[in-house]
């Protein structure tokens, strides 16, 4: 696809378009909002709105990027959606394994399928250091089981996207987690984010020596962390810092 404004990556690659909602974190899905804007526009990539479809013509895209990139895989979908056939998931992963000069970030809310496939059909890709496997964790009910699935998965590098954070997550088992991104919700109707919820995750990351990247407060609160007296984020890294740590 191309460059992106997402702070923790620099390119997106969408060999799948569209998705369906699965948990509260999906409520204000930016991908859906974007895609639905173009429903019915002839010839537009999102002519069919947010309906899920495979885009085989995009599979070879990483081969055409000659310089190394940090690639967010399926920013407009979910690789492990039930309607994406195993064969196609495997094809996406074979491209990632072969075009290995890039770093890929795969983020899903379908963590049970991620776990099942990394143990079986995707074992060839699971431990590759240039492929980061991640799950979204927005709350305790839906997010914490995903964290456990990820921890059980035979992944080389595991990441958590705690965004939009919707409540205090409580104690987290961060054993085996490579890095954590936290953020609030953006856009109209953004839900509240409490400073204590963020600080709790930050402190747990610090205690577990897990890199912590605080992305944003979102649109619910009209202030930024540097404007809060005493706010410090002692284990906050940019994605470039984290990238260097992997070398
Ligand atoms: S899983 Fe992700 S892409 Fe799919 S609806 Fe939810 S937020 Fe949107």
Structure in words:
The protein has 247 residues and is α/β, with parallel strands linked by helices. 29% of the residues lie in helices and 17% in strands. The chain is built from 8 helices and 10 strands. Strand 1 (2-3) and strand 2 (11-13) form a beta hairpin. Helix 4 (111-119) runs parallel beside helix 6 (140-152). It is globular, with a radius of gyration of 18 Å. Mean pLDDT is 88; it is low at 228-247. The protein binds iron/sulfur cluster.
Quick rundown:
The chain is α/β, with parallel strands linked by helices and 247 residues long. It has helices at residues 30-36, 61-64, 86-98, 111-119, 123-126, 140-152, 195-208, 239-246, and strands at 2-3, 11-13, 16-17, 53-54, 70-73, 103-108, 131-136, 157-162, 179-183, 212-216. The strands form two sheets. It has an eight-stranded mixed β-sheet with strand order 1-2-5-6-7-8-9-10. Strands 3-4 form a two-stranded antiparallel ribbon.
Architecture blueprint of SSEs:
Layout lengths: L1 E2 L7 E3 L2 E2 L12 H7 L16 E2 L6 H4 L5 E4 L12 H13 L4 E6 L2 H9 L3 H4 L4 E6 L3 H13 L4 E6 L16 E5 L11 H14 L3 E5 L22 H8 L1
Parallel strand pairs: 2-5, 5-6, 6-7, 7-8, 8-9, 9-10
Antiparallel strand pairs: 1-2, 3-4
Iron/sulfur cluster (SF4) binds next to α1.
What labels describe this entry?
about 250 residues, alpha/beta, about 15% strand, disordered C terminus, binds iron/sulfur cluster
